[in-house]
Automatic annotation (TrEMBL):
It comes from Methylobacterium gossipiicola. One of its GO terms (molecular function) is structural constituent of ribosome. It holds the Pfam family Ribosomal_L4. It comes from the Bacteria. InterPro entries: Ribosomal_uL4, Ribosomal_uL4-like, Ribosomal_uL4_dom_sf. The keyword Ribonucleoprotein applies. Part of the 50S ribosomal subunit. The gene is rplD. GO terms for biological process: translation. Belongs to the universal ribosomal protein uL4 family. Keywords: Ribonucleoprotein, Ribosomal protein, RNA-binding, rRNA-binding. This is Large ribosomal subunit protein uL4.
Amino acid sequence: MKLDITTLDGAGAGSVDLDETIFGLEPRVDLLQRMVRWQLAKRQAGTHAVKNRSDVNRTRKKLYKQKGTGNARHGAASAPQFRGGGRAFGPVVRSHAHDLPKKVRALALKHALSAKVKDSTLIVIDDVKLAEGKTKALAERFEKMGLSSALIISGTEVDVNFGRAARNIPQIDVLPIQGINVYDILRRDKLVLTRAAIDALEARFK
């Protein structure tokens, strides 16, 4: 599978052969859904908590005698049914992360890449380097390329000027190849890969 390579100025820069085992799969929605759910669950803070009846500072003395009053049987005032009492079955601090096999995670990334190729929303760019970190100039280049919502994956390191210029443009994400992930790929309309990123992906999945 061949794709044309472009530059930041919109000029042609040859073509590249994409590995069919990485970019030519038939996308499976179930795999992508499992991966996105795993990512979002893993990053969830899980710091929500409430005070249960053992945490509230209320008297533990029995409110009134058990029998003879005609009222319901009650014990401590910290019970959940009383105003100021502890909450029953409230959230506790915990991790929301769950397991997902490493092979499934790798396969989901391949299917996300293949989905972009199938939808013709994958762009291969020669390199992402700028002489100056000017947001306005980069935004004009993106407008000419039709990039209004895109994830840009560079090599092992993001060029300092390019990263500085791109960080103020809405709906444009820039990541090094180590940070590529299914959720960020799917949440943007287009995926932009550099030559170095493609080489790194093919080396990673060999």
